[in-house]
Amino acid sequence: MEASKEAFLREFGEHYGYPNGPKTIDEIRATEFKRLDGLVYLDHAGATMYSELQMEAIFKDFTTNVYGNPHSQSDTSSSTSDIVREARQQVLDYCKASPKDYSCIFTSGATAALKLVGEAFPWSCQSCFTYTMENHNSVLGIREYALDQGAAAFAIDVEETVHHGVSNGTAASMKVLQYQVQRRNEASSLEEPTGEAYNLFAFPSECNFSGLRFSLDLVKIIKEDPARILEGSPFCNGRWMVLIDAAKGSATEPPDLSLYPADFVVMSFYKLFGYPTGLGVLIARNDASRLLKKTYFSGGTVATSIADIDFVRRRKSVEELFEDGTISFLSIASVHHGFKILNSLTVSAISRHTASLAWYVRKKLLGLRHENGARVCTLYGDSKALFHDFGPTVSFNLKRSDGSWSGYREVEKLASLSGIQLRTGCFCNPGACAKYLGLSHLDLRSNFEAGHVCWDDHDIIHEKPTGAVRVSFGYMSTFEDAKKFIDFVTSSFIALPNWIESGYQLMQGSESRLGAASFYLKSITVYPIKSCAGFNVESWPLSTTVGGTFLNNTRIQACRAS
Fold it and tell me: Where do the Aminotransferase class V domain residues begin and end (predicted)?
């Protein structure tokens, strides 16, 4: 391990850890994440871990202060309102959004924030909803609101090309590879857009499937030159608004709204610092939020209403208009303890640290080979992208030496048995999943008809994977986490690595001998049921057919003789 870490630090040392922070990465793990001892947690894209010191600070806060309902008028309620106001400002500061231009609306999560935009957006039969293929289902769901109003919907695939040799070193340009028009109401296509319709473009700041970061230049392109994306579509004539799904990307690279003035940005706090869950935010430009058409009203969102006649006057404040009922004020009160951690480490240092681990894992996975020279791993994402274009996520699938796929559920369950927690499937991102796995519409429908649905065990259908394996890193992840994962893949999925060269000869029948008398067979573990725990045997006949099903379901441990 020491030699491996020294080699890692020679290559990534300037990015790894927090040498200028209040604690080093080893000190952070030893003092704030003691519960992770013996566990390799690699699903920070799903939910990052909360710090034990963070939770102690929250507990102390809640047990020494009294927070009342902010809709009441008591002193304790006034204190709560102050805390909520401070939390809103911290969120805006995190994305460099001026309170003169933006408002912070608390929701029950990023999904609820996306739903709010979709149901309140001023759709019409002349509107257009355009979104990148690589988007979370929670973004795709907005499409239903658009189509219900007769609007058009486009799914586009954006390719970013990096050019070298310019004055600044590199430059990026984008082109649309393809887009597909989908309509629920064909009659709407006969209407000529007037140019006054409102359109919405949605993309993630970071793809939660591949880890690739999208260029925020898309914000300016859509607002200033939508024809560059839609290539002459009549829907370019309307007013375009931009939504960024930053739920995944904001943990390491929050969008800078002072440079890229998107109209809507959504985030979830458990993706940032683990706790609280069930709390998200919609950051909305004030001029954009005034265009949203909210139907429902509730406690806290009205100035006055009358019960027995149709009379209601809504509040004018953006936050009060869209935050139905009593907000989760205790969760909001805990937010500043999480931001305190991020601010002490700095987001730029977190980004460098997590990226170094992800790049180390990518490099090691790409270098793995079976004994016959075949690659073990297929990575997803553009390997030619620049360093900063990747977030702290690596997605891949594994192949056996004969070229067949190892199912991702098999990888996940064996990893769990080894104390490694990771994520598998399509990660609620069907567009990216189909794109990177090469699944056609026919493949997707066929897989569904074969019984495959999200979160099931049908990981290989018609000799193609239906999802992938994903590992992702957080600010508290260490080199040791990454190394243990690589060791797990190496020991579990590489067929007979270098046995002949190490001195082993597998002979006909039950006999075996050591070509060099420095090794002995220590144990054999058999896994008769796919992805379930195995059992140890004291002996097993070896033959020339040993390389088939037996080895795919068997782990053989060898030790050097003393």
Answer: 40-161, 240-485
